Structure formats: structure tokens, C-alpha cells
Amino acid sequence: MARLFVAKLLLQLASGLAALSLCSGIAFNPCAPLTPVSRGDSFPLGLVLIPSVNASVLANLTESYGGMCNTTFQDYLIKNYKARIAIYNLRVDRLQVLRMPYADIIFSMVNATPPTLALAAFRANVTSQPIYIASGDTAQTFGAGFMVSTSLLLRIEEGTLRYLQWYDLTCNECGGATSQLCIHSSQGGIKACATPLDNCTCTTNGVANSSCSFDDERFDVCSTAINAAWLGTDRSLAVFRTGPQVQRLNAYSITSLFNAARSKFESLKNYVYTSVSESWSAVNSDTQSQYVDFWGGG
Ligand SMILES: *[C@@H]1O[C@H](CO)[C@@H](O)[C@H](O)[C@H]1NC(C)=O
Ligand SMILES: *[C@@H]1O[C@H](CO)[C@@H](O)[C@H](O)[C@H]1NC(C)=O
Ligand SMILES: *[C@@H]1O[C@H](CO)[C@@H](O)[C@H](O)[C@H]1NC(C)=O
Ligand SMILES: *[C@@H]1O[C@H](CO)[C@@H](O)[C@H](O)[C@H]1NC(C)=O
Ligand SMILES: *[C@@H]1O[C@H](CO)[C@@H](O)[C@H](O)[C@H]1NC(C)=O
Ligand SMILES: *[C@@H]1O[C@H](CO)[C@@H](O)[C@H](O)[C@H]1NC(C)=O
């Protein structure tokens, strides 16, 4: 049941992306023109998930081209990369966590070559740098695994969105920049800790468990949390409080600000993969079987 729901959701998300520009009537449209906002207003934001993309392809996401809301570029990313989109409705100057469920992450990556998943946030013609939220390819991202959390700062001047910026979490929690669990997104200038690939598979000690599903609760640790906070001023020049609050904290505290008791990394500071490519193969083979099940059965 839960799995079907995700399948439907992904379909809706995919068709939502294709139709965004035509759908000015949809309730929360991240491509709607920007109007000056005040604290507490609702604020739609889009997150695009793009498997296997080389960040240089996303050079097209410039403001003058209309960013992710350029339909030509949307169609190109859908057709060539199977890009998907998720839409969130935020409240201006609230701290919020946008959660990307593991099933949405992993089913976007089935057979992805190279096995990476990039994510960018967008609203109207403003787009963030792309970052990687999942990787089985150490050549591109240094560390491997499923990113636990990252922080997005929405920078607003006099009520109008100017920038969507990632806040570097430095990987202190998982042993620093050289940790095998530290995913580097050089184009976005950030590093963030990941859950090991081996914790996100139905295979234990080489044996696949056929009654296990990526919708099971134990895969909640494999989801990614995007912590959103606001910087700058609203349309009446009131200064936002949530962004400075995040900037004052170090990476440990940010994680605990948004997530209750994430002490999971204590045991992982010296984590070493036996073989990232073998670990990724196990994840991918589980994904293939569940994916066929999920699309074939619908
Ligand atoms: C990404 O594309 C750029 C420009 O085409 C190229 O120089 C670079 O090697 C590519 N990176 C990877 C990891 O394929
Ligand atoms: C920009 O997007 C177009 C499709 O809209 C694509 O053909 C082109 O290759 C992209 N540019 C780069 C640098 O990838
Ligand atoms: C981006 O969109 C805003 C309106 O939402 C417009 O004022 C601005 O000129 C656009 N930027 C570029 C570079 O076209
Ligand atoms: C959309 O992006 C393409 C490149 O991908 C660019 O050539 C085109 O001019 C853009 N369209 C608009 C309306 O900015
Ligand atoms: C990964 O799995 C191991 C063994 O099941 C467990 O001890 C560890 O806490 C898990 N780590 C995370 C980050 O979920
Ligand atoms: C197989 O997966 C199910 C559902 O996640 C779990 O309840 C069961 O304990 C697993 N069996 C083994 C042998 O790991």
C-alpha cells in the first residue's frame, strides 16, 4: 500500500514537473512570479532531483534563462536524465525540515550511471547550486552514502527572494572532510555526512531479504532532511530571525536543532567501506527488484 502511494506520488511529481508552466492554477506553484513577502506568508519551493548528472549540465540553470522554471530545460532534464520534482509549501521565517523519503531517492536512482543524485532548490528564476544527496561514486563526491541533512538558506531582500544558498555542514560529525561518509559537492561548496550504503539495503551478509521493502521504517535513517531557514528582510524591512540562528550554531548544533537526537555518527567516525562499488551493487539490485515490482504491478 505504502509503496503504491509512493509510486503515485512520483508519477504526480513527474507530471507536475512537465506541466509546471501550464499549471498556473496549481495550489503551490514554485514557478509563480515572486511577490514581496512578509514573515509568516506561505512560500512554495521546488526541489528537483536529477540522477547521474554532471553538474556542468546545470550551468543552464541561470537566472537569465529562467532557472528551473524554463520549460525547455525542464523537458530536457526529464527526457535525458529522468529528473523529478517535489514541491513544498514553506512559511516565511520559520525553521522547517523538508524531508525527502528514501524510496523517492532510491527509485530515482535505479541503474543510475554514474550512481549519483543531484538536488537543486528553486523558486521562479532563482535556483540554488546543485548538490549531491546520494552517491555510490567516490570519484565525483569523495565520500559515499545517503546524505543525512543539509541546510538551505533563503536570502530575501525587502521581501524578494535573491538567493538560495547551501550552508556547509563541514562533516565534523562523521570524522571530517576525509571521512568516507563525507559527501563533497564542490560546485555547491558544501560537505555533509551520509548514512552508509550498507545500512540502506535489504541485503545482509550477501543474502537478500525478499520481505523487506524500502518503505519499511528502518529505512527512515536513509532519507535526507533539508533544513530551511531565512536571511534578510521582509517587505516591511523586518529582519528575519531564523537564518542568523542557524549561522550562529556549529554543525553539531544545527543537526540537533532540526533533528531530535542524531547521535548516530558517534559510532561512525572511523567508518570504512570494504568496497563502495559492491555496496552500491547490492543497493541497486534491491532497487531493481522492488522497482519492477512497483512499476510493473501498477
Ligand atoms: C563534467 O563535465 C565537464 C565539462 O564537460 C568535464 O570537464 C568533466 O570531466 C565532467 N566530470 C565528470 C566527473 O564526468
Ligand atoms: C543546456 O540545455 C540545453 C537544453 O535546453 C542542452 O541542449 C544543453 O546541452 C545544455 N547545456 C549544457 C552546458 O549542458
Ligand atoms: C527574474 O525574475 C524577476 C521577476 O520575478 C525579474 O524581475 C528579474 O529581472 C528576473 N531576472 C533575470 C536575470 O531575468
Ligand atoms: C531556456 O533555456 C535554454 C537553454 O536551456 C535557453 O536557450 C532559452 O533561451 C531559455 N528560455 C528562456 C525563455 O529563457
Ligand atoms: C548501520 O547499521 C549498523 C549495523 O546494523 C548499526 O549498528 C548502525 O547504527 C547503523 N548506522 C546508522 C547510521 O544507521
Ligand atoms: C527481512 O525484512 C523484514 C522486513 O524489513 C524484517 O522484519 C526481517 O527481520 C528481515 N529478516 C532478516 C533475516 O533480516
UniProtKB/TrEMBL annotation:
Secretion signal, residue range per the UniProt entry:
1-19
Q: Which UniProt keywords are present, listed alphabetically?
A: Signal
Q: Highest taxon of the source?
A: Eukaryota
Record-given protein name: Pherophorin domain-containing protein
Q: Does the keyword Signal apply?
A: yes
